[in-house]
Amino acid sequence: MEMIESSIKKNVNEEFLSMCLVMWVKSIKNVTRLFSELLYQSVTSLTADSARVIRIVVGRSEIDLNQIKSHYMMQYNKQLQLAVQQKCGNDHAYSTIITMIIKN
Q: From the CB of residue 86, how many other CB atoms can be counted at a distance below 10 Å?
């Protein structure tokens, strides 16, 4: 699959289309890993991408959030709940609600 991703990046000239195709391949390969990576990107960027965190956490909460949390811990050696609290702690209400969803 890595060959497919690198081939897409190499042969598709339009950056947005290339990014979409790579995300699609990643989702086919391992959707849990994809969401874990997206959450990591969201909480480690200079400005937290609160909208993305909310979409993923709420959207996956009844599907596979526990698997995403486990993969996040395995991949980044940090609990997802703590990462969200540290990055988004300034907005106490938002941080509390999202971490409650992650916790349960």
A: 12
CA distances from 77 to 4, 36, 72, 94 (A): 28, 12, 7, 24
Please give the Cα distance from 55 to 21 (Å, whole number).
Answer: 20
Return the number of other C-beta atoms located less than 10 Å from residue 62's C-beta.
7
Residue at 39: amino acid letter: L
**C-alpha atoms less than 13 angstroms from C-alpha of 83 in its C-beta half-sphere:** 24
Max CA pair span of the chain? 45
CA distance 73 to 8: 29
pLDDT digits (tens, 9 = 90+) for 52-97: 898 999 999 999 999 999 999 999 999 999 998 887 767 777 788 8
Predicted TM-score (pTM) of this structure: 0.83
